[in-house]
Design goal:
Length: 205
């Protein structure tokens, strides 16, 4: 089946990720669309009960991921500005699914500085996440903390998947040496039920 009606994935104001959930009949396809700018990082994952896969295509029609690859997640930099499409195909059984899309907020240091602070409002609901991304060089020391520290935890990982800090540790600050050059995703995970403004302090030197 070819999906006629693409469902628009929108980010709530100030947020960096969104989740779409639904039910699909066996062997059907559903299409989602989202807008992104060139060089942003996209992080897409699909959870389903029974063998659903994703396909991803660019505004110009280039297919980055095909169904027959059997992929359920994808993370890479966006090569083209515009509307991107995520297609989901269900397997041989009806299934529920949850599609997650994150486009982290880029943190860049001003000239001749190595530290910054950033503010974000994390929406209501348990385990809501705000995604940041920052570039660092191998051997540099990354220091990051979130305030208020109560009820917030950090996870930090390199875009290739190398984990520096797991959210399971429940820490609101981290200091450590970067194992390789590249972008590091810094997620702030909330515990409280109310929307809360957080301040992230970051240094890489």
């Amino acid at each position: 089946t070819t999906p006629d009606q693409a469902i628009r994935l929108n980010f709530a104001s100030g947020t960096t990720n969104t989740t779409a959930e639904g039910q699909m009949a066996a062997n059907t396809t559903r299409r989602y669309v989202f807008w992104a700018d060139k060089n942003q990082l996209m992080d897409i994952s699909l959870d389903s009960a029974s063998g659903a896969y994703i396909a991803i295509s660019s505004p110009s029609g280039t297919k980055l991921v095909e169904f027959d690859q059997g992929w359920t997640w994808y993370r890479d930099y966006i090569p083209e500005k515009g509307d991107w499409y995520i297609d989901i195909r269900a397997g041989k059984a009806d299934t529920g699914y949850s599609l997650y899309l994150a486009i982290p907020q880029r943190l860049s240091f001003a000239a001749n500085t190595s530290s910054l602070t950033a503010k974000a409002t994390i929406p209501a609901g348990r385990l809501q996440v705000h995604n940041f991304v920052a570039w660092g060089n191998k051997g540099q020391t990354l220091k990051v903390s979130v305030s208020p520290s109560l009820n917030f935890a950090l996870s930090i990982w390199h875009v290739d998947g190398t984990v520096l800090l797991s959210s399971m540790e429940g820490l609101s600050s981290f200091e450590g040496e970067l194992p390789e050059a590249g972008d590091y995703i810094i997620n702030v995970i909330s515990g409280p039920a109310a929307p809360t403004e957080i301040t992230l302090t970051l240094s890489i030197e």
